[in-house]
Design brief:
73 residues, alpha+beta, three-stranded antiparallel beta sheet, 3 strands
């Protein structure tokens, strides 16, 4: 049996405070992509985060879309 597809969203941008997830301008949030596994999403997150490592106010996150789509699962 194949592994179940678990969708993950990677996005980020400029935040108001490095300790928060409040974005300065939500209209400018960078949508990196949607991935079919956590491993793929983590690779994308690592890549884009590393590219922005010198900017303390730029933050990227991985969201588990599958948990939002099927909260009772």
């Amino acid at each position: 049996m194949a592994d179940k597809q678990l969708l993950h969203l990677v996005f980020g941008g400029q935040v108001t405070d490095p300790q928060s997830l409040e974005f300065k301008d939500p209209s400018k949030v960078d949508i990196v992509g949607i991935y079919g596994s956590y491993a793929e999403a983590e690779n994308a997150w690592r890549s884009v985060s590393q590219a922005n490592v010198d900017d303390a106010l730029t933050k990227y996150v991985v969201v588990h879309l599958h948990r939002m789509l099927e909260p009772d699962a």
